[in-house]
Amino acid sequence: MKNLKKTDPEIYNLIKKEIRRQKDGLVLIASENYASQAVLSAMATPLSNKYSEGYPSKRYYSGNEFIDKIETIAIERAKKLFKAEHANLQPHSGAQANAAVYLALVKPGDKILGFDLSCGGHLTHGSKVNFSGKLYDFSYYGVDPKTELIDFKEAREAALKFQPKLILASTTSYSRTLDFKKFREIADEVKAYLMADIAHIAGLVVAGFHPHPFPFCDVVTTTTHKTLRGPRGGLILSKTKDRLDPKGKFTLAQKIDSGVFPGIQGGPLEHVIAAKAVCLKEAMKPSFKKYQKQVILNAKIMADEFLKHGLKVISNGTDNHLLVIDVSPFGESKTIQDELAMAGLYVNRNAIPFDTKQPYNPSGIRIGTPAITTRGLKEKEARQVACLMAELIKNISSRRIKKQIKPEVKKIVKRFPIYEDFQW
Ligand SMILES: Cc1ncc(COP(=O)(O)O)c(C=O)c1O
């Protein structure tokens, strides 16, 4: 760091400011977390210099003897942790992981059934502005308008009518448990592959607090930086055999691997793969299980507090690490997001089911507990944070309330410091 300070003070100072911002605010963005110092250390290494196109012991460049060992350890840890037959640690991100799976399993123009984006699906699950929606023929299932839970009757009917080659059991802002078995039954009826993108719930899954996508899914993708609390990145888990093509030239595992490389990526980020290995080891510890339990408890408490304040929580609560609230009665979600940020409370605006507003300024905000739980906040503080947020949301034009909330956030941040030994 000292070196960077001297050679590039402009970037050094901005990094320093961003670290300070992360330390001084309460991160309630459901997809963010604080990776451990061990994870960060593994990333900040000369492993970044190495070209390792290919896979362990089948590389296109020399000098990969140690890289091979690191990537093999990461693969084995991922297989063990996720109870998977096959793991690919190379996707640079969650979006890359999804792109690689689509490339491996379907052809451009083929049909994919995904979860409606306004109900909680992700951009890479068929948005018209994303490669997924541009290259593949997507149709969607959604939620029941009354319960706001996934409507399996609708999903089945959509599958029977649409006859997709691939079905996604995948969400980015859905706060309820996913029933992978039911998705499997639908996929079997139409002879489709079933993929779960568990980017958000991966930590909950490995800790045993969310049903496991295996053995029901053929392929599972995830990010490593959300509830899993690792470096920014993606990974793919799959079965070895291809259920729909058992006698084909390639196994499912081989198709996935070639979907990643040479399919959509060149050289893997081996410094990030090393950090993924570190995070996977951390996720095997009993303390990680305890952490995930608290993540869910905190989210439930926050949902309860919002409901007490008269705010509409989508589906009336949560089973996982996130919740979505409808802020449309109080103002524009962009304004509310910005005002919360000014008070040191970071959230992201989000669509709600059947949203009539535009994606840039939708009706809801999404709130997640992974990061505040890493800081050590428990039920009492989670309730307090929700109370502060609710007050601000309901009084979004009140300068007096805003003035009151900021110091309260500061007090919590001070009581629950993060990255105290981080030297910058
Ligand atoms: C369900 C889901 N899949 C994929 C992604 C994309 O991940 P990344 O931002 O790493 O590309 C996200 C990101 O939020 C996500 O929520």
UniProtKB/TrEMBL annotation:
One Gene Ontology BP term is:
tetrahydrofolate interconversion
Which cofactors go with this protein?
pyridoxal 5'-phosphate
Q: Enumerate the residues marked as the site Plays an important role in substrate specificity.
A: 225
Which SUPFAM superfamilies does the entry mention? PLP-dependent transferases
Kindly list the places in or outside the cell where this protein is found, as annotated in its UniProt entry. Cytoplasm
Alphabetic keyword roster: Amino-acid biosynthesis, Cytoplasm, Methyltransferase, One-carbon metabolism, Pyridoxal phosphate, Transferase
One GO cellular component this record assigns the protein to is: cytosol
Q: What is its EC number?
A: 2.1.2.1
Q: Which InterPro entries match?
A: PyrdxlP-dep_Trfase, PyrdxlP-dep_Trfase_major, PyrdxlP-dep_Trfase_small, Ser_HO-MeTrfase, Ser_HO-MeTrfase-like, Ser_HO-MeTrfase_PLP_BS, SHMT-like_dom
The residues that the entry says bind (6S)-5,6,7,8-tetrahydrofolate are 117, 121-123
Pathway in which this enzyme or protein is active: One-carbon metabolism; tetrahydrofolate interconversion; Amino-acid biosynthesis; glycine biosynthesis; glycine from L-serine: step 1/1
PROSITE patterns to which the protein is assigned, alphabetical: SHMT (PS00096)
Q: Which reaction does it catalyse?
A: (6R)-5,10-methylene-5,6,7,8-tetrahydrofolate + glycine + H2O = (6S)-5,6,7,8-tetrahydrofolate + L-serine
Q: What is its main location?
A: cytoplasm
Q: Can you name one GO molecular function term for this protein?
A: pyridoxal phosphate binding
Tell me where in this chain the PTM N6-(pyridoxal phosphate)lysine is found. Answer: 226
Pfam families, from UniProt?
Answer: SHMT
Indicate the segments forming the Serine hydroxymethyltransferase-like domain, all copies. 4-387
Listed under subunit, the entry gives: Homodimer.
Task: State the similarity comment.
Answer: Belongs to the SHMT family.
Under NCBIfam families, the record lists: PRK00011.1
Q: Which HAMAP family match?
A: SHMT (MF_00051)
Q: What does this protein do?
A: Catalyzes the reversible interconversion of serine and glycine with tetrahydrofolate (THF) serving as the one-carbon carrier. This reaction serves as the major source of one-carbon groups required for the biosynthesis of purines, thymidylate, methionine, and other important biomolecules. Also exhibits THF-independent aldolase activity toward beta-hydroxyamino acids, producing glycine and aldehydes, via a retro-aldol mechanism.
Q: What's the protein called, per UniProt?
A: Serine hydroxymethyltransferase
Q: State the organism named in the record.
A: Candidatus Portnoybacteria bacterium RIFCSPHIGHO2_12_FULL_38_9
| Gene of this entry | glyA
